[in-house]
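Researcher: I'm preparing a figure for a lab meeting and need a structural model of a single chain. I don't have an experimental structure, so a prediction will have to do for now. The sequence is pasted below. Please return the structure as C-alpha cells so I can convert it later.
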Amino acid sequence: MKIYEELQARGLIAQVTDEPEIRELVNNGKATFYIGFDPTADSLHVGHFMALCLMKRLQEAGNKPIALVGGGTGMIGDPSGRSDMRNMMTPEIIQHNCDCFKKQMSKFIDFGEGKARMVNNADWLMNLNYIEFLRDVGPHFSVNRMLSAECYKQRMEQGLSFFEFNYMIMQAYDFFRLYNDYGCNMQFGGDDQWSNMLAGTELIRRKQGDDAYAMTITLLLNSEGKKMGKTQSGAVWLDPEKTSPYDFYQYWRNVADDDVLKCLRMLTFLPIEQINEMDSWEGAQLNRAKEILAYELTALVHDEEEAKKAEASAKAIFTSGVAAEMPTTTLTDEDFTDGEIDILTMLVKSKMVPSKGEARRNVQQGGVSVDGEKVEDIAKSFTKEELSGDGVVIKKGKKNFHKMQY
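Model: Understood. Here is the structure written out cell by cell.
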C-alpha cells in the first residue's frame, strides 16, 4: 500500500484540492509540505500528535516536512475554533516556546540537512512594510468571502478585532513565502483551518498563475485531536516534566471504547492489517487494545524503557494499588502550614486537578481516597510525619493514582 492510500485507510484525509496531483507527489516522495504550530506554550500536547505522526509518515516515504512555528502570527489572535481572544506573548517567550517545540519534534522528524526544516514566520511577518503588503497582497482578498468563513462567523457575535481579522491573510502569506523561499508545494492542517488554507492556495495561484503547484489537504478529526490535549486535570503534555510518562500512558489507557481503534489507526505505526484485525474485539479485548495504544504512544514520545515502566506500574496498581514508578510529588517545608498540608492543596500540588475548586468538588462527590480510605472532609490534613518515608497514595476516580511524600 502506498503512503497516500495508507493515509486514507487510517482515516487521516478529510478534504483535498487536486487529489490526483497530491496523490502523485506524495506517493513519489516529491511533496515539500508544511504544517503550522502555534507557540502558545513551552510544550506540545497530545492534540498535536496527529500532525507529528503524519509528518513522520510522510518523511519516511521520502517527502520533506516544514514545521512552521507561528512566531509572527503568535503575536496576534487566531480566531479558528475560538470564542475568545488569546493573550499576547513577548518575542522572548515565543522564541523559548519555539526552541522547546523543535526539541520535542526531533523525536518524530529528522531535521538533518536536506530532510526537514523548522521555519519561523516571524522572519518575514515582523519586517513587513504595511503599505507594500496592502498593495501586494490585499487586492487578492474579498472581505465578503472572508466574513463567510466559519472561523470568523464564530467570533462575529462576541466581537472580532481588526488584528484577528488579518489572521487569514497572514496565514495565506505564510504559504506564499514558503512556496517561494523553500519550494513548499503542499500544506496540511485541521478541518478547522480549511478556509485559511484555501486562501493560501488561491493567493499563490493568483500571484504565480494557475499552474503553480500549490495544494491543500486537511486531516480528518484534527479539531478533535486538539480536544485530546485537554482533560479535566488540564493539558496532557509531551514534556515529561509537565505530564509524567505514567500519566501519559494512563491518558491513552483510559480512552473511550469507541475511540481506541480510531486512535490506533491514526496515531500508531502498527501495520494497518494488524489494527483491522481488532475490529471485532470487544469487552476485555478492547482493554487489551487500549494497553497496546498506550504502550505504543508512550514509547513513541518517551522511549521504550519509559513505556515498559508505565505499563508495569499500571498493572501493579490494578492488582495491588501500589507501584514504584507511580508519579510522585515530594513536598518541601514551604508546602506546609503549621506542620500540616490539607487534601485540597495536595490534589493541586499533584496536578491531579487544576484548582482547589475542582479538588473540593472531587472530595465532596466521594471521588478521592488516601491509602485506600475515602476522604470525606475537605479540611482533612496530613502532617510531615504521616508523609515521611513511603508517603501516601492519593486515588482520584477509578484509575488516577499519585504518591505524595515528604
